[in-house]
Specification:
389 residues, alpha/beta, Aspartate Aminotransferase, domain 2, Aspartate Aminotransferase, domain 1, 2 domains, seven-stranded mixed β-sheet, 15 helices, 12 strands, globular, binds pyridoxal-5'-phosphate, PyrdxlP-dep_Trfase_small
């Protein structure tokens, strides 16, 4: 599976914005907190529409705005807003759009801190339900006061897919907004807005940044929704992406197509190898999806990223920590989507029952397959798997 020519062209697109006259090929970093105006009347006019004028860098900034246009184009959305982190974007969507008395329905395995935020919002009178089964009947769980269906597909940890067309057919009929965390697929491998989703959220910290040197987030959707999120979720909560951070994310975007193709190639070779390994009980990744998910993979994804989970046959804490500690190429750490291979696991001494209650199988280890050679990665995994035998 591959990246479309249109997306390649967008990622390679030249800087367009103020100061482009000298032909700067890299986006200028507008390292300024404010923008002075020639007259008081002009100042007043621009301040009345801060979402489309450069007034103050907590609102908009030319370097950040260029990144926003690039992301909106890649997701085929009208508008985008960037944030200081993925959680900043998620907080702005929930905090900016919801009010006391609203209900949110979460579908599939959702990023842990997102659910923690949902629990925090109970203090402000926002209720929620979590449906971890990606095939659950969403309509059955919609309430009178459901304002938002929030989905992750592929989902966190088990990477299962939700039928997005079927889901949005229901939410559109019922007049409920939908948002998706599209971080796993990047804007290249899944276009949720084309499948009827209203808002796409990204953690730019992962593949889009791609170099493990910046945090960022984005929300993409209709101009109207993004504008509402700008005035409430962004301006009032203040999770701002700086111009310097935007220039780092833009540098990541330039090579996103080639990096994603290499992550994909490496990940598929790693998965093929793991599936055949006697110490591995299962691999969780859309490429290794069980039968029914197969049709969804074809209908929704145009490529695979390099984040996967494997289940060790010996799911004990000792086996997991022995395996993780034996890895050399895969470094131990949080996050994913950078050039480097990473390993992490939710398994801790004595938490098997709690993980089971959350639907997480024993011995689950998450790998972010980086850009080292697949042979090197497979050898590293083989050596570490031998330790668990
Ligand atoms: C990392 C991550 C986030 C949060 O992004 P940050 O940039 O770390 O705040 C949200 N969703 C998913 C799926 C993630 O992996």
């Amino acid at each position: 599976m591959t990246v479309s020519d249109l997306d390649r062209e967008i990622c390679a697109g030249p800087w367009v914005g103020p100061g482009d006259e000298p032909g700067a090929i890299a986006p200028p970093v507008f390292q300024t907190s404010l923008f002075a105006k020639p007259t008081f009347a002009e100042f007043a006019r621009q301040q009345a529409a801060e979402h489309e004028n450069f007034v103050y860098s907590r609102g908009t900034n030319p370097t950040v705005a260029f990144l926003e246009r690039q992301l909106a184009s890649l997701e085929r959305g009208e508008a985008a807003k960037c944030f200081g982190s993925g959680m900043g974007a998620i907080g702005a969507v929930l905090g900016g759009l919801l009010r006391a008395g609203d209900h949110v329905l979460f579908v599939n395995n959702v990023y842990g801190p997102t659910l923690e935020l949902a629990r925090h919002l109970e203090r402000f009178g926002v209720e929620h339900t979590v449906l971890t089964d990606p095939g659950a009947d969403v309509e059955e769980h919609l309430r009178e006061n459901t304002a938002l269906v929030y989905v992750e597909s592929p989902g966190t940890m088990l990477m299962r897919l939700v039928d997005l067309r079927a889901l949005t057919a229901v939410t559109r009929r019922r007049g409920v907004l939908t948002a998706i965390d599209n971080t796993w697929s990047t804007p290249l491998f899944q276009k949720p807005l084309e499948l009827g989703v209203d808002l796409v959220i990204h953690s730019l910290t992962k593949y889009v940044g791609g170099h493990s040197d910046v945090t960022g987030g984005a929300v993409i959707g209709s101009a109207e929704l993004v504008r509402e999120i700008f005035y409430r979720g962004h301006q009032l909560f203040g999770s701002v992406m700086s111009a310097m951070e935007a220039s780092l994310v833009l540098r990541g975007l330039r090579t996103l197509p080639v990096r994603m193709e290499q992550h994909q190639e490496n990940a598929l070779r790693v998965i093929d190898h793991l599936l055949a390994h006697p110490a591995v009980a299962a691999v969780h990744h859309p490429y290794a999806a069980p039968g029914p998910d197969d049709d969804l993979v074809r209908a929704q994804l145009t490529g695979f990223s390099g984040l996967l989970s494997l289940e060790l046959r010996d799911g004990s804490f000792e086996a997991v920590s022995g395996f993780v500690d034996a890895l050399r190429v895969f470094r131990i750490g949080v996050s994913w989507g950078g050039y480097e291979s990473l390993v992490s696991s939710p398994v801790r001494a004595g938490n098997a029952a709690r993980l089971a209650a959350d639907g997480i199988p024993p011995g689950l280890v998450r790998l972010s397959v980086g850009l080292e050679g697949a042979r090197t990665q497979v050898d590293d995994l083989d050596r570490a798997l031998a330790v668990t035998d």
